[in-house]
Amino acid sequence: MVRHGVVVTTPHYITRGGPRTRVLPELVAAWSGFDVEREVAALLGVPALVLNDAEVHGCGVVAGTGLEVVLTLGTGLGNAVFDGGRLAPHLELSQAPVRWGLTYDEYIGEHERLRLGDAHWSRRVRRVVEALAPVLVWDRLYLGGGNARRVSAATVERLGDDVVVVPNSAGIVGGVRAWSISR
């Protein structure tokens, strides 16, 4: 979770072996409050903009009208919220409990997709979308990230007209558009 280029918390970069491995206290301390944006700008000698993957992805697809939410499906669940085309403050939905004591990351992340298969996993994605709809009350929801293409056609059809699956390549476009959209 990054706000204004500074790490607020990071559930993913505090282990040596990646998700589902032991958290290392020294990495928690090193990342906490780290001003990534300032450090990158200083190292490169040019202005830098640091956003999470869902925020960059969203910059590539938002239309700029109403409340637009981006959920990225990959290792875990990424998210971003845009209001009138502007990036809203970040909500770290991935770490919220969803079911059986699992977080959203654990419930619909890559590990579960591989374990369940695409069809059953797609039903979980639908449950997540349906659960978040009354909380976020979006005008448009974009499903992106590396696994969005794996959501079954039947699930996509049941999600409704306000939900759009977008290609993972939107992150490339978003990297350019982020400079005019963000904050």
From TrEMBL:
This is ROK family protein. SUPFAM superfamilies: Actin-like ATPase domain. It comes from Litorihabitans aurantiacus. It comes from the Bacteria.
